[in-house]
Amino acid sequence: MTRLDVRDLRTYFFLDEGIVKAVDGVSLHVGDQETVGVIGESGCGKTAMAHSLLRLTTPPGEVVHGNVTLTRKDGSRVDILALPPDSPDLLSIRGNEISMVFQEPMTSFSPVHTIGSQIGEMLATHTDLAPARIRERVVELMARVGISNPRQRFDEYPHQLSGGMRQRAMIAMALAAKPKIIIADEPTTALDVTVQAQILDLLKQLQREDDMSALYITHNLGIVAEEVDRVYVMYLGRVVETVSTDRLFAKPLHPYTQKLLRSVPQPGRRVERLEVIEGSVPVPIGLPVRCGFYARCPVAMKGTCDTAMPALTEVEPGHQVRCFLYSQEREPHDEWTAL
Fold first, then answer.
1. Is there a domain that residue 297 lies in?
2. pLDDT tens, 175-233?
3. Are residues 88 and 197 located together in one domain of the fold?
4. CA distances (Å), origin 223, targets 3, 70, 286, 299
5. What span, in angstroms and rounded, lies between the C-alpha atoms of 271 and 266?
6. What's the CA gap between 219 and 238, in Å, rounded?
């Protein structure tokens, strides 16, 4: 069963300089109890896409098009983007059906409220538990995610906890209402390697125990290799390749994916210098209609790649690529192309 189905999602930021197409036609799906990864360089649109799924984008950003269809706990289906911003249904979905582990818990938590009260707010919103029972439930959650002395930590403020403890508290908050999908946006950013491994093991264990699906937003390919079943590679607001994790590392097809994988150290392979992807992700304002990777691609074909946007096409069963090396199919022009 498909738990989350995203179709042609477009999130644009309307600035004085022009329209930034942060997410430009992304489609993806997450199956029941499946772990899906979204990877790419900083600036490729991963976090903007994740925020769009829960309608967390704020002005000047706006979700201008798309469908985000959620299969709820009771089996009913709802398009999150079709709900009014102040809809009780939307409030019910956030935290209860889909929860998010944000990128930096130090800035995601309120600095003037205790950790326990902030986790408890999730339970107060989505359950009818009495205040005394909420406190006990929060202590249980904090203990479950490995926070030491949870009764003491309940009354402490975010700055009193270490980075690893804050991340665990963020996970406790995300799991409070027992969601069926968890979105983890760079869940190990700024943590040392040992704590990273602990957090990832914790997420995997909790996902298995609660039968959750997961969507990992990351640029850490180690996380992808260890935790993810299927991968979407994003570049310049678009998906350029999607395939199973094993196939991605065994046979990446898109030139960007190939360069991305070669830019990280690999056990058993000794090289004098790691490969780099020359240049950087361009600011997506007023770009020409062409392959987004054209200016950085070592195998770009003049007269082809610079004249049209390749379509995302299936070149092998379950393996889709957006590249003219594998298909001459072009992305059709639509109302969004001219923006």
1. no
2. 899 999 999 998 877 677 787 888 888 888 889 888 999 999 998 888 898 889 999 99
3. yes
4. 22, 25, 34, 29
5. 10
6. 15
